[in-house]
Amino acid sequence: MKTSYDKLIENNKVWAAQKLQEAPEFFNLSAQGQAPEFLWVGCSDSRVPANEITGTESGEIFVHRNIANMVVHTDFNFMSVLQYAVEVLKVKHIIVCGHYGCGGVNAAMGPINNGLVNKWLRNIKEVYAKYESELNAIADKQARANRLVELNVIEQVHNLAKTSIVQKAWADRSLQIHGWVYGIGDGRIKDLDCMVHEIEDLEPIFRFEFPNNPLDL
Ligand code: CO
After folding, report:
1. Cβ–Cβ contacts within 10 Å for residue 131, how many?
2. Which domains are present in the chain?
3. Which one of 64, 97, 99, 178 is the catalytic residue?
4. 197 is catalytic
5. What is the mean pLDDT of residues 157-174?
6. Hey, which residues does 65 pair with through a beta bridge?
7. 164 phi and psi, to 5 degrees?
8. How many distinct helices (H) and strands (E) make up the chain?
9. Whole-angstrom distance, CA of residue 199 vs CA of residue 133
10. Which backbone phi and psi does 125 adopt, to 5 degrees?
C-alpha cells in the first residue's frame, strides 16, 4: 500500500527528470557549490515556501525558518546560519519575511500556556509590550494581529542589526536587511520599507566597535 510519503519520493523522481530535461547541467552545476545573494529568515509555516513565493531556483536563497521568523541571539542554530551566510557566502541581502495569519504571533497574543513553546513566543510578547499602546488602540483583533506581524518583522530586522556578525560585515562592505510580510490570502509580498544597512540605523547602545574587538561573535 502506498503511503502519503511515497508520493514525495515519486514526485522527486519526476522533478529530477524534468530538471535534467530542461537543463542537462543543472545538477552538475549545483554540486559545484552555492553562491546565494540572499539570506531568508522566514516562518516555518508550510504555506510560506521561500523559493516558491519568490520565483527563485535552488541555489539562489540561503534559508532559515522558525516559528514566527524570529532572530534570537541565544539561538545557536540561527546564529550559525547567520554567520555562515554573512561571512562565508557573503550574502548581500538578508530578508526577514513574516506572514499575516501567523499562528506563532496569534498564540503569543493570547494567554494560553503552550508549554515549551512559551519560551519562544515570549520574544513576540516582548514586541507586543514594546508597542502596547499602538496595538491596544486597534479595536479589530485581526487588524491588531496583522500589525503585530509587521512590528515583529521590524523588530527582527533590528535584532539582526544588533548582532556583531552584521555589524562586522558593515565595517567593510554593503549588507542590507529588509523586512517583508507575505499575505497568505493573496500571495503578495509587502515591503515594510524598514531596510537597515548601516550602523547609524541602530541605537548607539547596540553598536560595537570594529576591527579591534577579538571577541567578535
Ligand atoms: Co507563521
Report:
1. 16
2. 36-206 (3.40.1050.10)
3. 99
4. no
5. 96
6. 42
7. -65, -25
8. 9, 5
9. 28
10. -60, -35
